[in-house]
Amino acid sequence: MHSVTSQKKTSPEAHANDATAPLDIKALSPEAISTMSYNELIGLVRETNRPPGGSKAIMEVAHQCFLNPGKTVLEIGTSTGITASELAQLTGCKVVGIDINENSLAEARERASRKKVAHLCTFQKDDATALSFPDESFDVVFCGNVTSLVSNRDKALAEYARVLKPGGLLAAIPMYYIKEPSDQLVNDVRKAIRVNITPQYRQDWENFFKVSPFATLSQSNFSFDELPVSTVDAFCKMILKRPHLQSLPADSQQALNKIYTEFMQLFRVNLAHMGFSTLILRKESPDIDAELFTSSKI
Ligand SMILES: C[S@@+](CC[C@H](N)C(=O)[O-])C[C@H]1O[C@@H](n2cnc3c(N)ncnc32)[C@H](O)[C@@H]1O
Description:
The protein has 298 residues and is α/β, with parallel strands linked by helices. It has helices spanning 30-34, 38-45, 54-64, 82-91, 102-114, 153-163, 183-193, 202-209, 229-240, 250-271, and strands at residues 72-76, 94-99, 121-125, 138-143, 164-172, 175-177, 214-223, 274-283.
């Protein structure tokens, strides 16, 4: 079993929210839209981007991490902030959401205000592999499927361990293939998310997360439901009708409709090959022995 370690940060740093300049939608050209990755499009269309498992997974994490108003949570790759706002609204906990995409963070702040949890949620630009928080700052670190997008995953995991308090919980929801994808499918997904992914299977993520100082407290495995083309089309039409998108020039609107719908149909096919696990892991103290006689549900 290998362990993850990271350089200690001892001095607290300032964490003021980045003042985010909103996208100048009227000036967005069709070319600019066609070169956006899916993660950039999320910020543009202001999609409610949920973790794998959606609201059920958020609820499960809230319960399993015993969240309450005394707890502080760091959400990695918050995107447009639905998980952060939901956790705050459901439990009264404090949440710091971080992401590398400022436009998504701007929408996350708006969402927290709309949901009346802005006093509990802070959003800032930060990188999973170089978090700007002192050691042992958080009771819970939540990372949906974000770690799969990070090239230096070991560094990210070491950072999650570093910022967790002793006994703190890591909630991770990694996605993996349960049916082997074609090379074409994997390549198309790589282009859409602009990340050079290699297909991961459940065992890969178990090997990744189940390392010292983490001990697994619970794991639930799921597969994604298969959806008809028409359901995804109807969802895209609803998103693309949003009032703020109507100020795009007509040719840019067409480019957006094309690329967004293509990506969502691609994800429909891709997710039909995939499953995910909700993992709750605890940062254990070094003086505790690993569990020897482990068990499985029968
Ligand atoms: C698909 S979205 C998030 C989905 C959802 N929040 C979840 O839990 O799975 C992935 C987000 O991760 C962000 N991201 C990618 N690399 C990152 C990094 N190194 N540090 C922080 N955020 C990152 C992207 O900008 C994007 O908003």
